[in-house]
Amino acid sequence: MQGGNTLEELPLGKSTERAALAAAQAALGRIILGKDEQIELALSCLLARGHLLIEDLPGLGKTVLAHALAVVLGLSYRRIQFTSDLLPADIVGVSIFRKESGEFEFQPGPVFSQLVLADEVNRATPKAQSALLEAMEERQVTVDGTTRALPNPFFVVATQNPADQIGTFPLPESQLDRFLMRLELGYPNEENERELITGKDRRAMLEEVVAETSPEILLALQEAASQVHMSDALVDYIQALVRQTRESPDIDIGLSPRGAQALAAAAKAHAFIRKHSGVFPDDVQAVFATVAGHRLKAAGGAHYRSASELCQHVIDSVDIP
Fold first, then answer.
1. What is the pLDDT of residue 1?
2. pLDDT digits over 205-237, tens only?
3. Which residues face 148 on adjacent strands?
4. In Å, what is the CA distance from 162 to each residue of 57, 91, 165, 292?
5. Domain 13-214 has CATH 3.40.50.300
6. How far lies 299's CA from each of 8, 36, 45, 160, 213, in Å?
7. How far is the C-alpha of 155 from the C-alpha of 179, rounded, in Å?
8. pLDDT: which is higher, 191 or 102
9. Domain ranges in the chain?
10. Domain 228-321 has CATH 1.10.8.80
11. C-alpha angle 218/180/64, rounded to 5°?
12. By the 8 A CB rule, do 152 and 46 touch?
């Protein structure tokens, strides 16, 4: 055995768990058509114990993907619709005075769920957005001086509309950094769009989908993914990419140490899903744009049209080991 590379070789890596993951991936592919790469990346994010930000135009399936992840993974699910009048208490909960007992009783908010959908997160004010910071970082919330643990596993899947749309409040860098990945879904191709037009409604399909995993299986899969072997050469490669983001004249703000850790964790999870014997450069490159794109800030004179183009420039600038 080489560094505990494959699921079958790991103490928690049973073939039944591998089959459950494959079944969940296939079920998601039947609901979200033609987006196999994005589904694979979303699962990589959750296996790496990270939070996911899905950014795109309205109507492209962001909310459906988040709900589908909860259903097929067997997780409890709550949706929070972020609006300009949302208050932090609407997210984390509030203590209510009970006249009968003469005491305050805490009423948990929707954040006390295994998968929380923060829908249109950038339509809420910064004060409401900040209510998620402790939950996402520490997996706990503090209300009235009392700290309460959140469920395990715990994920935030947030959707975000483009910042140039009316009524949006840009997420601060500190909150963007809490998301391990940022995905874009994009328009479907003509064949998939035709099936969406003529076929069954995707939300109706969710009512017929069964859970393919459970929280216990997901925790075991997360542990197995974290133990995928990463060679010293691959660590050197990740460090070289991170160093390039910090030293490139095209980039004002490069990856932080937390960003480097996120890149390594995501690459391990991607290698695990692909059944690789260890982390390959292809795994690092596959997740790089989704991990780094929302953390990098292009320099004022940079000519890159998008974060993905900037990330591709970084990859092209670093030799593969």
1. 32
2. 888 888 999 999 999 999 999 999 999 999 999
3. 141
4. 7, 23, 6, 18
5. yes
6. 46, 33, 28, 24, 44
7. 10
8. 191
9. 13-214, 228-321
10. yes
11. 65
12. no
